[in-house]
Amino acid sequence: MSIVVKTDFRGEYNISKTCYDQLDFYIEKYEHEYLVKLLGAELYTLLISDLTATDPQVPQSARFLQIFNPFDIDNNRCVVSSAGIRKMLVQFIYFHYVRENQVVNSASGTVTNSVELGVNAKFMGNIVQVFNQAVDNSHSIQWYICDNKDEYPEENIQIIENTSGIWET
User: Fold this and answer.
1) What pLDDT shows up at residue 55?
2) What is the DSSP code (8-state) at residue 73?
3) What's the confidence (pLDDT) of residue 19?
4) How does pLDDT run across 35-64, given as a tens digit for each residue?
5) What pTM was computed for the model?
6) Burial of 19: CB neighbours in 10 Å, binned 0-12, 13-18, 19+
7) What three-state secondary structure class fits 161?
8) Parallel, antiparallel, or unpaired for β 109-112 and 78-82?
């Protein structure tokens, strides 16, 4: 049971159905990791216990639905926007799946990215952009949680940093 299901990987985050067997591992590993970073351990446990029993799982209580669903909120002279927790998780999982399997979505489907002397720059730019979109989503959700401390007293958020695309091996 999880918030993210394989069929969430479509459109710009498309993963070929022939690769779905590998996707379960990534969903299980990264959904937990990023939710704990997003909320902290205690609030994460409360969110998980609030989820419905059917896939895809969604929260039942209003306080979790508020951060789970997409939102746009005026904040002083800015707008804080989130695409929601599910999309944030899809973005993080897609990033790890594509980076670790070095696949690229093309018009003919998901194909292996093979470049003799290095990683294709377009490939790296795409997944870096997806990762940073997920980070932006997480920051918006964390902003909302911190701005509503009375509603989320259990929070212990961990800031996730944007990336330039350079990773240590």
Assistant:
1) 87
2) E
3) 80
4) 999 999 999 999 999 999 998 999 999 999
5) 0.86
6) middle
7) coil
8) unpaired
Contacts of residues 32-36 at CB distance under 8 Å and 24 or more positions apart, as own/partner, are 34/88, 34/89, 34/92, 34/134, 34/138, 34/160, 35/3, 35/85, 35/89, 36/158
Nearest-angstrom CA–CA distance, 16 and 165: 24
Task: For residues 90 and 98, give the distance between their C-alpha atoms in angstroms, rounded to a whole number.
Answer: 12
Alpha-carbon distance of 83 to 147, in angstroms, equals 18
36 contacts 44 by C-beta, under 8 angstroms: yes
Task: Give, in order, the Cα–Cα distances in Å from 161 to each of 26, 131, 138.
Answer: 20, 10, 10
The candidate with the shortest Cα–Cα distance to 140, out of 94, 62, 90, 85, is: 85
